[in-house]
Fold this sequence. Notes:
Elements: H1 24-31, E1 45-51, H2 54-68, E2 75-82, H3 92-99, E3 104-106, E4 117-121, H4 129-132, E5 139-143, H5 155-161, E6 166-173, E7 184-191, H6 198-218, H7 220-225, E8 241-242, H8 255-265, E9 271-275, E10 278-286, H9 290-293, H10 296-299, E11 308-311, E12 316-320, E13 325-333, E14 335-338, H11 339-353, E15 378-380
Parallel strand pairs: 1-2, 1-4, 2-3, 4-5
Antiparallel strand pairs: 5-6, 6-7, 8-15, 9-10, 10-13, 11-12, 12-13, 13-14
Helix pairs in contact: 2-3, 2-6, 5-6, 5-8
Amino acid sequence: MRVLVRRCWGPPLAHGAGRGRPSPQWRALARLGWEDSRVREKPPWRVLFFGTDQFACEALRALHAARENKEEELIDKLEVVTVPSPSPRGLPVKQYAVQSQLPIYEWPDVGSGEYDVGVVASFGRLLSEALILKFPYGILNVHPSCLPRWRGPAPVIHTVLHGDTVTGVTIMQIRPKRFDVGPILKQETIPVPPKGTAKELEAVLSRLGANMLISVLKNLPESLSNGRQQPTEGATYAPKISAGTSCVKWEEQTSEQIFRLYRAIGNIIPLQTLWMANTIKLLDLVEVNSSVLADPKLTGQALIPGSVIYHKQSQILLVYCKDSWIGVRSVMLKKALTATDFYNGYLHPWYHKNSQAQPSQCRFQTLRLPTKKKQKKTVAM
């Protein structure tokens, strides 16, 4: 018996429809050799997984656990495609695949086996129409945002960076030539923790996405037939993060914006600024409590954004931004320094040498990185 299935981004193909005169979708599949192969109507599925990072690893782990669960019979075959890495051990997905003895291919090699469905999570490569058509049920994408909001490679970072209060995970079906525009098969939302980092949020979303993926695979044909197109309104893009994003703009950014930036990218690349023409990295930012803000030293003078004052009682550096103060516990200037070390080594000597100078002259300044293309190194996806 030959089973006809829907083309991976077109309307469903009815069973037995067009006898004697195949539909255009079926003719496309037939040209790829599917006319003589058996396409499964139900699990267990043969899956090819595409992924790279820790977020993707959670989805791969769920697929592997499902394959090992012989009672449920959801996954029959599981193989992995990842991208090259400078590290000999490879990216997290490769490490997990090696540990679990799963077959691995390195992009653009995708093997030559037969599969029912592909799964993508944090892969960062556009997949061609020819590749998508190799999978009778298409390729699913586990995307950590509520599409169409935050299409692109860094949705979790931009969720935190822009202060979103709600986010979620979308299981969608991939279309060729463009990222994150295919029909939505399943979408769930969660509140964003007010003080959480992007790394912490990603861990939560990775577990949610893995569970949602298994749920979709259990009812794959039904999920595909019930897919809905993404809304045309509300689409936003989440581009990759560059080194320039980490440069604090003291005159332009509020304390809230700087803390969001720190929570969004601080674990990937430290925030940067200038101190006396030297680049300094801000390693540990803290909010400043109201009792510190009431200190006459902070309220009794005109302040310029970037002004730095050491607060001895709390042992933090206070830095003035567009609207208020932020606290810095440690910095990197040649080596890691606590706020007290920085005061003793740099601030205190500066005040002694410049006893007649105003405190506003002792300040951090916005770092402007070169605009040459070779300087725009991408540091996160």
